[in-house]
Design goal:
The chain has 181 residues and is an alpha+beta fold. The chain contains 3 helices and 10 strands. The strands form 3 sheets. It has a 4-stranded mixed β-sheet, with helices on both faces. A 3-stranded antiparallel β-sheet has the order 1-2-3, with no helix packed on it. A hairpin with a 2-residue loop joins β8 and β9. The longest helix has 13 residues, at 83-95. It is elongated and about 60 Å long. The model has no long low-confidence stretch (mean pLDDT 92).
Length: 181
Amino acid sequence: MTKHPLDIFSHCPKCGSHNFNINDEKSKRCGCCGFVYYFNPLAATVGVIANEKNEILVAVRAKEPAKGTLDLPGGFADSMETAEEAVTREVLEESGLRVTETKYLFSLPNKYLYSGFEEHTLDMFFLCRVESGDCPIANDDVEELAWMSLDDIRPELFGLQSIRRGIELLKEKKNEIKNKI
């Protein structure tokens, strides 16, 4: 059984005190300085890149977690970056494609194991239009890229829970997405 992420933090990040105790199910409070730390999800973005054939760009993960499984381009938002800027940057880093337009689709919660620590994320899915003529090239956290028909994509081949659920939603809403391309 996985520990709650707050159980890992034993010292106050503000004053360093050991008197850092559970405040409620979402926070810890320091008995010395009064600092309250809330464990909120990290912002992450997912790029849904579709072509004129109603295929979407699918990646193979090059690193853990879920190395070797299918994924969609995306990643964590940096500090002081909008979700749109984050998905644009991540798509460029992972595929070399330059995003020209983003449209928010939906969001899903996720748990992401990183260095033995379970990060909770809020994954925001964006339909991304890219510059025409660009060819995707696998880079960064991506081993391989391929265009796949939404009809042929099998959600169970995606290693991350939120992406798997996102693929299911995309398949359910494929006509809506086709009209947004």
